[in-house]
Amino acid sequence: MRRILIVDDDEMIRKHLHGMLDHTGFDVSESDNGHTGLVMLREKSFDAVFTDIHMPEMDGIELVRAIIQEKTVSRVIAMTGGSNFMNALFTIRVIKHFGVHGIIRKPLTHANVLYPLKDWLQTPSVGS
User: Fold this and answer.
1) pLDDT, tens digit (0-9, with 9 covering 90-100), for 23-57
2) Greater confidence, 82 or 60?
C-alpha cells in the first residue's frame, strides 16, 4: 500500500485530502506543520508528500528544501490556495526550481488530486 504524508496547517484541508486518499486505498498520515512533517519523514518511508506552501513556522518551500537536502525519498506535491496571482506565479517558479513533482491549486477535487497522483507516483523520487 502506498504511503502518503499530508502537511498543511488547515485541519479542514488535511481531513478532506485524507478522506479522499484513504478512500482510494492509500495509507495516509498527517502533520499540521513543516517541522513535524520533516520529523515524520525521517522516521517513516512515504511514497509522496502533499505540502501546503504557506504555513507558519516552517513553510512548504522550507520543507521541500529540507527534503532535498536530506535526500528524503519522496515525491513532493505542493498545494496552494493563494489568491494573489503574482504571488502564486512566484511561488510556482520557486517550487518548480526545488523539484516538486506537481502543484495543486486549492480547492482540492478528485480531478486535481487523484488523476495526477497516479502519474506522479510513476515518476522518479526526489533525491533518487
Assistant:
1) 999 999 999 999 999 999 999 999 999 999 889 88
2) 60
Residue spans per domain, the chain: 3-120
Alpha helices in the chain (DSSP H): 11-23, 34-43, 60-69, 85-97, 110-120
Give 3-state DSSP helix, strand, coil % of the chain, rounded to 5. 45, 20, 35
Q: Peptide bond before 116: cis, by omega within 30 degrees of 0?
A: no
DSSP state of 122: T
Quickly state the pLDDT bin for 95 (edges 50, 70, 90). Answer: low
**Rounded to the nearest 5°, which phi and psi values hold at 48?**
-155, 150
CATH 3.40.980.10 fits 3-120, yes or no: no
